[in-house]
Specification:
Elements lengths: L10 H9 L3 H23 L2 H19 L8 H34 L11 H14 L2 H12 L4 H8 L3 H19 L1
Helix pairs in contact: 1-2, 2-3, 2-4, 3-4, 5-8, 6-8, 7-8
Length: about 180
């Protein structure tokens, strides 16, 4: 079967061969379609550095669904829809992270009016260094609350601690960061 796989073999045929146990068909499909997927992801995200990682996530999703797949549209359209959705999810996640970072900086920033504000980059560096210096229990709460947008209840459930403990760790972490920034 290996010798029969050529450049002319259609993607639909490769999927069918893979579903019937030919692993080389999957390799050919990936080799053929991966560059197209990376270009599509780069187009949406405008971030070539992340495109390959996102493409790997797409392939993971595709391979998981490929065994029972019965395409009603072309493989290309289906795979690029997955790539587009993963790209949009990545963009939303990046926007959320930037927003949460700005909120964290705003909450920890308390610059007296008579002094000059820090440069934004140095303030960001201070916040990042401050977060790294927090105790692991406070750092994880900060990360879950601000970077992963989890509610206090969700954090409580995940960490298996009372919600009041989550609140106090969050408060202590904010206070520590405020002191570091001053």
């Amino acid at each position: 079967m290996k010798n029969s796989l050529t450049r002319q073999t259609s993607n639909t045929m490769l999927i069918s061969l893979y579903q019937n146990g030919d692993r080389d068909a999957l390799k050919l499909l990936i080799n053929r379609f991966h560059p197209i997927m990376v270009r599509t992801i780069t187009y949406y995200t405008r971030n070539p550095g992340e495109a390959d990682d996102l493409a790997q996530e797409c392939w993971y999703t595709i391979i998981k669904k490929l065994d029972g797949l019965e395409l009603k549209i072309s493989f290309e359209a289906w795979a690029l829809t997955i790539a587009r959705r993963k790209s949009i999810d990545w963009i939303r996640n990046q926007q959320r992270l930037r927003k949460q970072e700005q909120i964290l900086i705003a909450e920890t920033e308390s610059t007296p009016e008579d002094s000059e504000p820090d440069e934004p980059e140095s303030l960001l560096e201070k916040v990042q260094a401050g977060i790294r210096d927090l105790s692991p229990s406070r750092r994880i709460v900060i990360q879950m609350f601000y970077l992963e947008s989890m509610s206090l209840g969700e954090i409580s459930t995940v960490l298996k601690i009372p919600e009041g403990t989550v609140k106090s760790r969050l408060f202590d972490a904010r206070e520590t960061l405020k002191k570091l920034i001053k």
